[in-house]
Amino acid sequence: MHFDLVDLSLFRHVVEAGSITHGAARANLALAAASHRIRAMEASLGAALLTRARHGVTPTPAGRTLLSHARAILGGVERLQADLAAFAGGAAGQIRVLSNTNALTEFLPEVLSAYLTQHPGVSVEIEERLSDEIVGLVAEGAADLGLVAATVETGTLQTYPFRRDRFVLAVAADHPLASRVAVPFAEVIDHDLVGLDRASALTRFLLTKAARIGQPLRLRVQLRGFDAVCRLVECRVGLGIVPETTARRAARTMAIAIVALEDPWATRDLTICMRDLAALPPFAQDFVAHLRRGEAGPGATASLARDGAA
C-alpha cells in the first residue's frame, strides 16, 4: 500500500467537497487524473474508500479512517513547512478557515487585508458554511479555525470572541414597514424578499426558520452580496435581511430604512473556534491574534434599539 501526499490531499478535498469533480478542482487536478488516483488508492488498499451515489460521494468506514490520518499527516507537513520557512526568510503556508455569512462579508475582508500584507508568503482558504456545520468540521480537523454564531454549541473547541453585529430588515424609505421600530420574522415572510443565493449560509438559515413557521421564503431575486440586496430594496423589489453594519453603510447613500428584527437569533455575537490554538503554526496563531483585535464589546448591539428606524 503506497499513498503519497498528493493522494492524501486529493482524498481530503474529495471528501470535504462531497464530490470527486469538486475535490479535483480544489486539488488543482484534472478530473480524469483525480479519478485514476482514487481508483489506484482503492486498488492498493483492496477496499473501497468512497461510496459513490448520484449526488456525490461519502467516505466508507475505511475512507473515514484514511481521512483522519490524512488530515493528521497533512497538518504535520504544513507545520513542518511553516517551521522551516523561518530559516528561508519568512513564514509560508496556508490557513483553512470556515466562516458564516455575516463574518465573511462584513468583518473578514478588513482583517485579511491587514494580515496578508504582513504575511506575503501565507495564503488563506475561506469557505462559507452554516455555523453548526463549521463546528463539526473544525472538530474533525477539516479546517484550522471557524467563525460562527456564538449561539451554537462548540463542545470542546477553544473559543474566543470575534465581533458583534445583528441582522436587521432593510426596506424602501416609503414602504409601510419603514415607520415600524421592530417587526418579527413571521411578519417579514409575508412579503417578497431580496436575498443572497440559495447556496449562501444565511439563505439556508432563513429557509430553515421559515420552514419552522410553516411558510415559504418568497425570494424574488437572489444576489451575491449584501450591498446589491440593499440597492434592489431601495428600488422596491422586495425587503432584505442584512447585517446592521451593511444597512447603516448603505443608508448613507440609499433611500432605505432600517427596522429591527424582534427575533432573538437576529443578534449575532460571532466567535472564533479551533481545536487547539497552541497546535496551530505560528503564522496561523498570528492570524487568530489579528482576528481578536477589536473584539466585540458588550454594548455593540445597542445602537439600533436606541435609534429606532434609521
The number of distinct helices, counting runs of at least 4 residues, comes to 13
Helix content: 40-55%
Q: How is the main sheet built?
A: 10 strands, mixed
Structural class computed from helices and strand pairing: alpha/beta
- The end-to-end span amounts to 65 Å
Overall 3D geometry? globular
Order of helices and strands: HHHEEHEHHEHEEEHEHEHEHEEHH
Instruction: Give the overall pLDDT as a whole number.
Output: 88
Structure, explained:
With 310 residues, the chain is α/β, with parallel strands linked by helices. 45% of the residues lie in helices and 23% in strands. It is built from 13 helices and twelve strands. The strands form two sheets. Strands 3, 4, 5, 6, 7, 8, 9, 10, 11 and 12 form a ten-stranded mixed beta sheet that branches. It has a two-stranded antiparallel sheet with strand order 1-2. Helix 1 crosses helix 2, helix 1 crosses helix 4 and helix 2 packs across helix 3. The radius of gyration is 22 Å and the shape is globular. The termini are far apart. 35% of the residues are buried. The C terminus is likely disordered.
